[in-house]
């Protein structure tokens, strides 16, 4: 059985970390509506309450020992503004009421989060976190070697999605999971070591869909689309597979 099992129909998974179980999500992007207003002039009502209720409902459904967010808990890059602070504060209150701590593996949007929430939030190093045999990274930087020693590595950042077309040319976007073995050589080159010295057993990478429904994503089956992470796609096996949220297996992501 896999150490990381997606929750059917949801952009979330439960990870077996040995001593505890974690509910894992990526790219929460609290306060995104404020960002869209200033970045693109798009006016949208806040979805903060619905995001919080979705995550809390998943906690009630899966009974985890902790929640792990794979980066970009907030949307604004740098110091969180009032909108982000209020939304994350309400989320932490709701999780505290359930005695479920939140651990953040910081992403490129989370620069001021640790200072903003003091001891209410457990913030890992930017290079990632390892709990038992599961590693957690955001994906915007190269992971620490200790994280790469895990059997399974979870990451966010990419917001993977696929474009599906019907027989008459219509199309729709669907969030997707991306799973497959990691290649050794790109990491050995990055760390400037002999491949054998990494001492790993070819971990599986699980790229999480974005939890936020308004954050866009990386098309993994559209010609010319590039990945955001510095180690993708070179470090991912060509036979890595894509899955829809409902569990539908799409096959090798390069041939979807």
TrEMBL record:
Highest taxon of source: Archaea
Pfam families named among the record's database cross-references: Metallophos
Domain Calcineurin-like phosphoesterase: 22-141
GO MF annotation terms: hydrolase activity
CDD domains: MPP_PF1019
PANTHER family: BLR1149 PROTEIN (PTHR39323:SF1)
Protein name: Metallophosphoesterase
């Amino acid at each position: 059985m896999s150490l990381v099992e997606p929750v059917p129909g949801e952009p979330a998974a439960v990870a077996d970390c040995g001593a505890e179980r974690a509910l894992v999500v990526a790219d929460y992007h609290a306060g995104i509506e404020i960002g869209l207003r200033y970045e693109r002039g798009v006016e949208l009502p806040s979805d903060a309450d619905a995001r919080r209720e979705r995550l809390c409902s998943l906690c009630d459904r899966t009974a985890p020992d902790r929640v792990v967010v794979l980066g970009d808990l907030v949307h604004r890059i740098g110091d969180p503004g009032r909108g982000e602070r209020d939304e994350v504060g309400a989320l932490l209150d709701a999780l505290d009421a359930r005695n479920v701590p939140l651990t953040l593996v910081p992403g490129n949007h989370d620069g001021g989060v640790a200072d903003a929430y003091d001891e209410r939030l457990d913030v890992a190093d930017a290079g990632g976190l390892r709990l038992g045999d599961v590693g957690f990274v955001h994906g915007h930087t190269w992971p620490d070697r200790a994280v790469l020693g895990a059997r399974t590595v979870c990451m966010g950042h990419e917001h993977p999605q696929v474009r599906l077309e019907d027989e008459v040319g219509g199309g729709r976007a669907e969030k997707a999971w991306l799973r497959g073995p990691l290649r050794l050589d790109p990491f050995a080159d990055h760390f400037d070591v002999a491949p054998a010295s990494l001492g790993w057993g070819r971990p599986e990478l699980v790229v999480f869909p974005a939890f936020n429904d308004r954050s866009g994503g990386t098309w993994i089956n559209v010609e010319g689309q590039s990945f955001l992470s510095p180690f993708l796609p070179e470090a991912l096996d060509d036979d890595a597979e894509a899955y829809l949220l409902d569990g539908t297996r799409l096959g090798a992501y390069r041939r979807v």
